[in-house]
């Protein structure tokens, strides 16, 4: 189940199965709105499995529909406010590079984005198809306006960015907030854009407490050269996936996804 704006992928010709040479009927593409097509799939008693990537609100509705129908198996990848934890002994250059990639890749429009981190180097904004461009525009004007509203109401110190890039298109400069307070919306709400916050911590206990202080629990990252510290922290984080010394991009589910 994909969002309504992913119209290219939702077309039969855009499906990977089309290019893989599957026979007609093996993989079927249904298009429609969530309250019609999506609801029918989630509620149908002959559908045994639903996998969905999207908002937490819609994920709850799918889970409810699955429970009311035939208790079908459900896999959900919903919202996130992922922490990237960088300890004192971490390889700073590696940590910063991966942390930057983890939040600003795909223009920050990822539910697994590590939006509580920091970065130091500059990134080029522009045509996402150009080889030297790292960050492109936001997908829609409504998303651009939503992200800008978070930035404008941040109520914290803007370290870099904090404004649109250029006068045309939906481009937003990579933005980092410092001196934030846990009560601020930019700290605990998913922005789904190139915006992150830098949060200081005292020790391992303190950072685990702060990292788990969120309604989400999708993904997290830990950067340290101490393997015991890395494993202990990763196991105690309330996150479905924890990456160690990497961005985690391209590592969702693994082999287990094929058996569920």
User: What is the subunit arrangement here?
Assistant: single chain
Low-confidence stretches: 118-122
User: Biggest β-sheet, characterized?
Assistant: 3 strands, parallel
Order of the strands making up the biggest sheet: 3-7-8
Keywords: Oxidoreductase
GO molecular function, one term: oxidoreductase activity, acting on the aldehyde or oxo group of donors, NAD or NADP as acceptor
InterPro entries: Ald_DH/histidinol_DH, Ald_DH_C, Ald_DH_CS_CYS, Ald_DH_N, Aldehyde_DH_dom
Organism: Suillus plorans
Could you name the key traits of this structure?
three-stranded parallel β-sheet; 260 residues; 9 helices; alpha/beta; three-stranded mixed β-sheet
Describe the structure.
It contains 9 helices and 8 strands. With 260 residues, the protein is α/β, with parallel strands linked by helices. A 3-stranded parallel β-sheet has the order 3-7-8, with helices on both faces. It has a 3-stranded mixed β-sheet with strand order 4-5-6, with no helix packed on it. A two-stranded parallel ribbon has the order 1-2. Helix 3 packs across helix 4. The longest helix is centred in the N-terminal third of the chain and has 13 residues, at 56-68. The two termini are 16 Å apart.
Briefly, what is this?
Helices cover 30% and strands 13% of the residues.
Write the layout of secondary structure elements.
Blueprint: H1 7-10, H2 16-20, H3 34-43, E1 49-53, H4 56-68, E2 73-77, E3 84-86, H5 92-104, H6 141-152, E4 157-160, E5 175-178, H7 185-188, E6 195-197, H8 204-211, E7 219-223, H9 227-236, E8 241-244
Helix pairs in contact: 3-4
């Amino acid at each position: 189940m994909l969002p309504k704006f992913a119209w290219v992928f939702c077309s039969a010709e855009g499906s990977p199965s089309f290019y893989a040479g599957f026979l007609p009927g093996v993989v079927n593409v249904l298009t429609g709105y969530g309250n019609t097509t999506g609801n029918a799939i989630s509620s149908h008693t002959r559908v045994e499995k639903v996998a969905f990537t999207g908002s937490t609100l819609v994920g709850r509705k799918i889970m409810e529909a699955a429970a009311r129908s035939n208790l079908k198996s459900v896999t959900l990848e919903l919202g996130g406010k992922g922490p990237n934890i960088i300890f004192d002994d971490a390889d700073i250059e590696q940590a910063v590079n991966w942390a930057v990639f983890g939040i600003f890749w795909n223009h920050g429009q990822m539910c697994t984005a590590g939006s509580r981190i920091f970065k130091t180097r500059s990134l080029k904004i522009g045509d996402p198809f150009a080889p030297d461009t790292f960050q492109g525009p936001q997908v829609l004007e409504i998303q651009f306006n939503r992200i800008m509203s978070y930035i404008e109401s941040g109520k914290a110190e803007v370290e870099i960015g904090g404004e649109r890039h250029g006068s045309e298109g939906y481009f937003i400069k990579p933005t980092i907030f410092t001196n934030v307070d846990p009560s601020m919306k930019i700290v605990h709400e998913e922005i789904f854009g190139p915006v992150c916050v830098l949060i200081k911590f005292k020790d391992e206990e303190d950072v685990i407490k702060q990292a788990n202080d969120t309604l989400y629990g999708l993904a997290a990252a830990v950067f340290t050269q101490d393997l015991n510290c890395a494993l202990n922290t990763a196991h105690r984080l309330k996150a479905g996936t924890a990456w160690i010394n990497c961005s985690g991009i391209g590592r969702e589910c693994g082999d287990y996804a094929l058996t569920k």
